[in-house]
Each structure stands twice: as C-alpha cells, then as structure tokens.
C-alpha cells in the first residue's frame, strides 16, 4: 500500500469522489442534494494498492491554523483493512506540515462508521460550521495537532 499526493484533476481521484458522492446520496436518502464542485485548493491523497487508487481524502486550508479533511472515501471492497485510519493519519501529517494546529471535518449522522473512526482517532464534536450550518444531518468534529518543537 502506498499513500501519495494527487492533483484534483487526477482521473482516479475524480472517479473516487464520484463514487463517494453517489454513496452519500444513497446513504442519506437523497436529502443532501449537494453536488461535488472541485476546489483547486484541496490537496488530495490517494491510497494505491496494486497500482490502483482505492481510497482518497483531501485537505483544504480554512485559515492559517485550521485544515479541513474533505471527501474521505474507501472503495467498499477495501474497507475493514485500516486504510481509512492510515489515510486520516497521513492527512493530519499534511496539515501539520502546512502549519495547521487544528484539523476539522464534517460527516453525516447517517454514517456511524465514519463517526466512530473520527471519534476513535481523537476527534471531538464541535458546533456545525461554515457551509454545514443549517444541515440537520451534519456532524462536525475537530482535533488539535501537536505543536512543532
């Protein structure tokens, strides 16, 4: 398994994000209605197994101190192998290297496995922020990162 940086225009990243968005719409009963709009300022990481990207996640700077984890997704056939946990750690490392002291994220109430992953990784629930305000299905969490010596 390899975790590598990929541009937002990478076709494998695009395919993973489309699959993630489709699965989210199915999970929330189509209530969300959000359409994926790529952001040039999101840094994506891909998890590659046998030459194929099987998972992705992005990091977007909200401000100088805060990075937001975006679009975490692992293809169903690769779940249960610890890939999401390793990807999340790699995204946190990227945030740290970019000088962020906090990482935050949003997930949905209809994704209990995601909530469990983030909680077990040290994330604590915070008030809903930004574009998620007003979405009754949003659960936002944050985690402080170590301070550089």
Automatic annotation (TrEMBL):
This is GNAT family N-acetyltransferase. Pfam families: Acetyltransf_1 (PF00583). InterPro entries: Acyl_CoA_acyltransferase, Bact_Acetyltransf, GNAT_dom. GO terms for molecular function: acyltransferase activity, transferring groups other than amino-acyl groups. PANTHER family: AMINOALKYLPHOSPHONATE N-ACETYLTRANSFERASE-RELATED (PTHR43877:SF2), AMINOALKYLPHOSPHONATE N-ACETYLTRANSFERASE-RELATED-RELATED (PTHR43877). Keywords: Acyltransferase, Transferase. The keyword Transferase applies. Gene3D superfamilies: 3.40.630.30. Residues 3-146 form the N-acetyltransferase domain.
């Amino acid at each position: 398994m390899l975790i590598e940086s990929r541009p937002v225009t990478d076709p494998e990243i695009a395919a993973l994000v489309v699959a993630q968005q489709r699965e989210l719409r199915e999970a929330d009963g189509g209530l969300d209605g959000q359409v994926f709009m790529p952001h040039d300022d999101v840094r994506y990481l891909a998890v590659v197994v046998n030459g194929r990207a099987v998972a992705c996640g992005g990091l977007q700077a909200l401000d100088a101190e805060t990075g937001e984890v975006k679009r975490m997704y692992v293809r169903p056939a690769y779940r249960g192998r610890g890939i999401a946990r390793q990807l999340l750690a790699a995204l946190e490392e990227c945030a740290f290297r970019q000088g962020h002291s906090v990482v935050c994220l949003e997930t949905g109430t209809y994704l209990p496995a995601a909530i469990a992953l983030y909680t077990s990784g040290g994330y604590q629930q915070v008030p809903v922020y930004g574009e998620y305000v007003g979405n009754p299905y949003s659960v936002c969490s944050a985690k402080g990162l170590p301070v550089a010596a």
